[in-house]
Request: fold
Amino acid sequence: MLLRVMSHTELLRRHLANAGKPRAEQDADVYAEDLVTEFPYAPEDHTRRLEGPEALLGFLSRIATFALGFKLSEPTLVSEGDTFVAEYHGSATFKSTGLPYEQDYVLVGQVRDGKIASLREHYDPLRVLRAMGEIP
Reply:
């Protein structure tokens, strides 16, 4: 039996599609069991590191609890190889404040054996804090 290997773009699309979905509807098959996810620019007291697919999927499922209409644009793969770089845009309205959230993301990921092994998502933390009403 031949196994089909997903392209980096397909892996990334499936990963991004997990954001905001209930856990039962998420796709864990795109992640390596030892997945590490990092958010190096996360504001203080926000998630900076997650280990394993379950931790990431739980985090992604919680987006719907605080963000209304969360959407991510089609990602643009800037480079591809074992390590890839992608860019995409996100938008939502924060439920607690009614304030809009617009964010541009840069993701550095690594693929190993056809699965995402690490993710490092870079974004502007000030945009998060503004949407939360923590800064003007």
Q: What stands out?
A: The mean pLDDT is 94. Strands lie at 31-38, 49-51, 67-72, 76-79, 83-94, 100-112, 115-122. The longest helix spans residues 8-17. Helices lie at 8-17, 53-61, 63-66, 125-131.
